[in-house]
Amino acid sequence: MTTNTLQFALNENKRIKDLADSIGNLTKMKKMSDLSTLRPEDILVLFQQGKLKEKDTMFWLGVLALNAEEKAKKHEMLATMDELTQVYNRRAFIDNISKELARLRAKHLQIEQLLSEPITLTIMMVDIDHFKHVNDRYGHLAGDMVLRGVAGTLKNQVRETDSVFRFGGEEFVILLPDTPKELGVEAAKRIIKAIENNKFTINKRTGKEVRVTASIGVHSVEGRDIANVRVTDMLIPKVIAKADEALYFAKENGRNQVVLWNKAMKK
Known about the structure:
The chain is of the alpha+beta class. It is 54% helix and 15% strand. The protein has 2 domains: 3-80, no CATH class; 90-260, Reverse transcriptase/Diguanylate cyclase domain (Alpha-Beta Plaits), CATH 3.30.70.270. The chain has helices at 3-23, 26-30, 40-48, 54-80, 90-111, 131-138, 140-157, 181-197, 236-252; strands at residues 120-128, 163-168, 171-176, 200-203, 208-210, 214-222, 258-260. The strands form 2 sheets. A 5-stranded mixed beta sheet has the order 2-3-1-6-7, with helices on both faces. A two-stranded antiparallel ribbon has the order 4-5. It starts with a helix and ends in a 7-residue tail after the last strand.
């Protein structure tokens, strides 16, 4: 046995002994606020040493399993959230639109023939108008505050079934499941007004506020249009491109407006 291996074994034995001494009994163990250093193998060692009864061992193994599950969920959430705006990020958007397109096709094949209206997924591309001017005039920290404010406005304006994502820069995407294009356009118009009527604080010390507007491109996908598509993920670039074309048209023709995609639109 090498010196390093022996030292490691001694350190582990001491750690287990200190752990047993610190918890003393199950009552004290329940009061431990930080389980991050506690491992399942530690519990098993304590059981083998007779420091824990079988039922207490099973209890704490269950606690550690739940703790590990919560950590995994937290890490997953952090991986799919945009840190600045606290809405979902681009990665989460791709995952969600993939699931929604597959769900849309499945629902069409299963139940749409029983309905009078087609099942529809609507997507919005939202872009803050003249955002570069905010950064140039007030600085990037002010721009960050505007981004957070707009993201908050978007979250407040959508339904629980809808999802808001930061697509990149000053651009956001909103997915509206089971939403026909007419309702999607109405929702987009409400969002436009909410942003326009809002004042966004860019300096908490001075109370300085700014107003911004936004442009929105809307595109809707009906279940019957993708019924024969086996791999719905292949549609994702096309769906994004059409919403983006509508957004481009809105910005090129005056901004602060909602435009619904149609076949005549091409960049």
